[in-house]
Amino acid sequence: MTLINCMTLTGPAPVGFRDSIIRVFCTMVLLAAAFQSLASERPVTTVYIAGSGNPALDQHITGLLAGQLGESVSLIPIDDDQLPTIIDNPVVTIGAAATTRVHNTNPAISVLALFAETTFINDLAEKFPGQISGIPYDVPLLRQALTGKAILPQATRIALLATEATAGNYDQLLKELPAYGMEARVFLVESSNDLIPTLVRALGYGDFLLAAPDTEIYNSRTIKHILLTAYRRNMIVIGPTQAYVKAGSLASSYTPFPAMAELAARFLKSYFTDGRFPAPAYPDHYGVVTNNQVARSLNIPLPDRDDIGKMVQKVLSAHKGEG
Amino acid sequence: MSALRYWKSVRFQTLSPLGVGCLFAAASVAPAGADQLSPVDPYAILGLTQEQMELPEVLTTTRLRQSKLRVPGTTTIITGDMIRKLGIMNLVEVFRLVPGMVVSEVGSNNPVTTYHGTVHYEQRRLQVQIDGRTAYRAGLSDMDWIAMPVALENIERIEISRGPNSAADGINAFLGSINIITRSPQDTAGLEAYAAAGSRGHLRTFTSAGGASADASWRLSYEKRKSSGADRQTVEDQNPPSHDGHDINNVNYDSTLRVGDRHSMTIRAGVVDGVDEEDHLTSGLAGSATNPDIMIRDYYLQARFEGTTSASHFYHIQASYQQQRRTQEWTISIPASAVSDLLPPGLPPFPTDQGPLVADINANSREVRQEFEFQDTLLFSPDLKLVSGLAYRRDSFESETYFNGREGNYQSRVFGNLEYSPAHWLTLNAGANWETTTTTRSGHFSPRVASNFIINDNHALRLVFSKAVRTPSVFEQSPDWSYRPKNIPAPFTILEGQRVLVADMAADSRRPTTYGQNLDEERITSREISYFGQFHLNQALLKMEVRYFHDDLRDMVSGIISEDEWTIDNNVALDQQGFEIETSLDFSGTTLRATYAYLDQDGRYTGDPDSLELRDQNYFVELLSRLSVQHSGSLSWIQDLPRGFSTATSFYWDDEFSKSAFKRADLRIARRVDMSNYSYEIAFTLQHYLSLEPWTSDDNIIDHENQFFVEAGIRF
Fold it and tell me: Angle at the Cα of B119 (from B117 to B121), degrees rounded to 5?
């Protein structure tokens, strides 16, 4: 808009050569000034942020995104009542609840979901390809399984707890594990009363319990009991998130916020270019968090967490290479 | 089975309900979600040191939770998982895995087990507890392993303190103590069913149902155990079939309830009902015409309250009530000529042409035990810990036959143990028990002191000195034994209901009777040098425990207790020494374990040399070595295989008992299958006896070297 206005302001050219030279020079000066003006006053692209309700988390993520996107993108928090007015600008949602809220309020909005689980993001992305995408917060189950194996190299069997609704989430993992010298079994929890009996059986099967982000099974009400029962059988629990590691799970891979922000920025830039998001994808880099107190209590020699991460990455890379 | 076996093997810890509660007390999980889960510090919350968490721990020896580096004595731990994986078919057989312990059968196939031998009948020198509840029968100084109210499936682990443990467990823990710890109902929630059948009428079924929530858990289990016993017995050079099996029903209820984060309550109850068959050719009075089977009806109720006021102060209060009822009634048939002596003077003898005296007699008894215990644990610092407590026990007995009515015994005691570590390499323990009992109407002091020298956190050398006593049982001390024949037909009706005193019968024995004489307590002075070490190998963990002991046993009660002879007295001294090794090697999927014990026991008669012939003196000394075996041991190998298969191979030997050596090899092949909604296991076990020659008793003959068992279990 600015450039067009400048061009219009120059008016028709004089006829003489000298005048022509002057005109050309003038035009170039004006064009240069116009471009300079464009560079300094370039309009900022707006990306809205639908927060999780946790101000510290929202602020931290916003800051990381801003660092990746630069000043050309303005990250503006948005309230629910402003959602219907958004037309073209994408919205970054922090948490599954925010994603649902945004999408339900204005189904036309393009959403980049952060801090949501793989299944949640994939479901939406399949229904609204290009319009909704995300960076899953949870770690690929295979990576978590390999995290456990990096800690217990002799481990070959993994126990998984699932409900009927979530059992299918492990199909891919069950297929992938044999290539890594492991196998897994899903133990179905049919009701809340069935949780501990099923866990007892699962602990009898596996070399460790792989906890997945299944809130029906692993939640604030159950985690204490699950971890405690596992402790009593001297069985370790891997995953599902950093918070559970703090609570007593032995270790978990996790998605570092900067890695998530970096990939989110790439998704947004792609959106600015193409007008649609790429398909959901995991970040390239993962961290490992461990609970050294639990390791000591179970007398498990725990490698350095960076080394665990490298071991996992090495195994994954080797298999990709084979593929 | 598990790659974690290596790691698991180095830590055996049972979390009490309170410990369980405390463990996650700080993990106050916020409802907002997992991201707000609070951190847990297992050490701080449990009040444990890192060392305690990383080394095998024992609870029984001093009642303090101590690592094997700091415990003042040698303790064997047999886990419930090991028991089940080895295919052990009944509880008493577990003790074949313990160095220095032997298992055998006496009389009508009655199982006995002991540490460092001594007598084979009325095994009375070990304290046996189930979850801290005394199982030893104080009235008749015996252990009834057939009627033990615990199922193998419910066992978390068994701790055996080898060596006198009276300082912690009181005057019955003379040679050692056994503490059977059952699984928390929190770990057994769900449904489970199991059945095993095999040779010699072996049948065992187990069903369990339970539930668990964050604050409460419960388990109700039912077990049936049945056996037809030995195949044959020996009667006058003949080997007729024996009637010595058992059929026992065992129901147990366990529950725990957390009360806030600092208190918990445990309630246990159970009933044991069944029959222990006794063959009239082996058991009962001479002239028994019917089998004197024992009808068993026991029950117990136990309540335990645990509390903590801080991370360094714990206490518990425990009360229990138990009843053991034995109904043993049978018929005797005695020639008339043999009973005329029972007639009052002046009456003519019974006619001998009208058949024998046929009468019903009984040896019924009812024992009631009430126990109360308070224990307090103070952790002044990581280097100074004190456990102390008070206990009171009342045993009352009701038996027309053994006590002519009622008899009783009261015991009260105070106990304590101080653990002090002045340096990282040194731990000192000093403990003692002061106990009074109405059996001897005196008090008895049982001290123990120990120094543990700790080498680089994985090895320790222990020097232990202890003293203990065993007071005679009420029956040994104050018998009033008689039989009252009933349902007597003519012409013997004059004997109906008359007391036939064993004292009178014993007076006629060849050896002088000691019936009615006061007995003193038995005393033991024990010295132990032991070593515990664990070696972290490349992919395995090697553990080894070696114990050298030198014990002086004085005023030992030896002699005969029977209807026609009563000669027990404090008349034998034993000096015994030896060494024992327990070692295991654990690595992924494989467990190897070996034990060996050497016992050198010398006895001498210390009673009145003029009261017995030399031959009888030697016999009395020999009686105290009937289960004393010079060489004994076990080997076991548990191996996980692909596709859920596993094998367990074990070999047990005792070389040798009074008659021959015991040698048996077991092989178990099992397959466990885990489905989404249930898991099941099937197993086949072969027990191969290398020799069928009776090792202790001619009355417990097994016909076939190979005994077979099949098992199937399912868990939902």
Answer: 130
Q: For residue B29, give the chain A residue with the closest CA.
A: A220
Provide the pLDDT for residue B137.
81
Nearest chain A residue (CA) to B33: A220
Instruction: Using a CB–CB cutoff of 8 Å, tell me whether B41 touches chain A.
Output: yes
Nearest to B542 by CA among B591, B579, B580: B591
Contacts of A57 (CB under 8 A, 6+ apart): A51, A94, A115
Q: Do A205 and B679 touch (CB under 8 A)?
A: yes
Q: Is the pLDDT of residue B457 over 90?
A: no
- Min Cα distance A293 → chain B (Å) is 6
B266 pLDDT higher than 90: yes
**Binding-face residues of B in 2-31 toward A, CB within 8 A:** 2-4, 6-8, 10-11, 14-15, 20, 23-24, 27, 29-31
Substitution target in B5, B35, B192, B714 with the highest count of A β-carbons within 10 Å is B35
B40 touches A at CB < 8 Å: yes
Other CB atoms within 10 Å distance of the CB of residue B305: 17
**Shortest distance, CA A255 to any CA of chain B (angstroms):** 14
What does the pLDDT look like over B208-225, one tens digit per residue? Answer: 999 988 789 999 999 999
Based on its alpha-carbon atoms, the radius of gyration of chain B, rounded to whole angstroms, reads 26
Q: What is the pLDDT of residue B500?
A: 87
Tokens of A114: 């952060």
DSSP letter string over B458-504? TEEEEEEEEEEEEPPPHHHHS---EE--BSPPTTSGGGTT--EEHHH
Q: Is residue B42's pLDDT more than 60? A: no
Angle subtended by helix axes A2-10 and A17-40, to nearest 10: 160
Residue B80: closest CA among chain A residues belongs to which residue?
Answer: A233
Over residues A264-275, the pLDDT tens digits come to: 999 999 999 989
- DSSP-assigned letter for residue B347: S
CB contact under 8 A, B214 and A221: yes
- What pLDDT, in 10s, does the model give residues A33-50? 544 544 444 456 899 999
What letter represents residue B360's amino acid?
D
Q: Which residues 75-104 on chain B approach chain A with CB closer than 8 angstroms? A: none
| Dihedral sign for Cα atoms in the order B501, B504, B506, B512 | positive
What's the token pair of residue A98? 């925010």
pLDDT digits (tens, 9 = 90+) for A100-135: 999 999 898 999 999 888 888 999 999 999 999 999
